[in-house]
């Protein structure tokens, strides 16, 4: 890994337990539910496929993909995060690799599908990162990338926290749905989710989320793009 990537990986070295605990809160569990639904809808993993999960973190979303039968290689730049992912995925076909998503340590066209969940916000040159995802996927393979939506109220809050010196949010690059479409030279399917706020009453969340999706709003906190390699 590069020196810069090691520094960014170190940002998360103390986060595995905190990260997982967030998804156990009432709002965090709903965020996980809706993000996972969108991920699986776009990726459509199948049994025995070889999938690369870039920025797999603690395996929060990796487990949901594994449950549908594919084999997964999980890449992350934080060793503590990878160790947590390995402990969660015992019994599944999961291999952990430490590496840099801007320079993937794999040969061309070796994966059936590639996914990256909320890792791109820590990469300044998004086009270069996505180009390397395309490089390692097979022809007609699927690439799914998700990140934090710059049009969302969640992003506005994080930007304010960054201005106040929050070390993690200072590293983030927020992108809009149009920014995501521009990351690759082929057409993308782009959707957003998480149309509710962090402090929302969990009982009201399903109605708010369903309304946002029905209206096709592009302001959800979670933006996902899907491409097919030509």
Strand order of the largest sheet: 3-2-1-4-5-7-6
Series of secondary-structure elements, N-terminal to C-terminal: HHHEHEHEEHEHHEHE
Structural class: alpha/beta
* Residue share in β-strands: 15-25%
Distinct helical segment count: 9
How many angstroms separate the termini? 29 Å
* Average pLDDT figure: 90
Radius of gyration: 17 Å
Kindly list the characteristics that best describe this protein.
230 residues, alpha/beta, Rossmann fold, 7-stranded mixed β-sheet, 9 helices, 37% helix, disordered N terminus
What's a quick, concise take on this entry?
The protein is an alpha/beta fold and 230 residues long.
Task: Walk me through what this model shows.
- This protein is of the alpha/beta class and 230 residues long.
- It has a single domain, classed as Vaccinia Virus protein VP39 (Rossmann fold).
- Helix content is 37%, strand content 20%.
- Strands 3-2-1-4-5-7-6 form a seven-stranded mixed sheet.
- The chain starts with a helix and ends with a strand.
- The N terminus is likely disordered.
What's the SSE blueprint?
Elements: H1 3-11, H2 16-22, H3 26-43, E1 50-54, H4 62-66, E2 71-76, H5 79-88, E3 94-98, E4 111-117, H6 126-136, E5 137-148, H7 153-163, H8 177-181, E6 189-193, H9 205-214, E7 222-228
Parallel strand pairs: 1-2, 1-4, 2-3, 4-5
Antiparallel strand pairs: 5-7, 6-7
């Amino acid at each position: 890994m590069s020196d810069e990537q090691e520094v960014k990986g170190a940002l998360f070295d103390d986060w595995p337990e905190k990260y997982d605990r967030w998804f156990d809160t009432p709002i965090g569990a709903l965020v996980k539910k809706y993000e996972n639904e969108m991920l699986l809808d776009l990726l459509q993993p199948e049994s025995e496929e070889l999938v690369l999960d870039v920025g797999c973190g603690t395996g929060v979303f990796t487990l949901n993909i594994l449950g549908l039968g594919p084999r997964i290689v999980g890449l992350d730049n934080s060793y503590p995060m990878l160790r947590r992912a390995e402990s969660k995925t015992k019994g599944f076909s999961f291999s952990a690799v430490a590496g840099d998503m801007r320079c993937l340590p794999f040969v061309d066209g070796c994966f059936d599908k590639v996914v990256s969940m909320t890792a791109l916000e820590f990469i300044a040159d998004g086009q270069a990162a996505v180009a390397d995802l395309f490089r390692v996927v097979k022809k007609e393979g699927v690439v799914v990338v998700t990140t934090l939506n710059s049009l969302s109220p969640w992003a506005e809050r994080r930007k304010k926290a960054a201005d106040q010196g929050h070390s993690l949010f200072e590293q983030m690059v927020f992108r809009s749905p149009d920014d995501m479409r521009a990351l690759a030279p082929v057409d993308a399917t782009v959707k957003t989710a998480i149309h509710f706020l962090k402090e929302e009453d969990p009982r009201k969340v399903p109605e708010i989320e369903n309304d946002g999706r029905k209206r096709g709003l592009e302001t959800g906190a979670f933006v996902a793009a899907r491409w097919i390699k030509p």
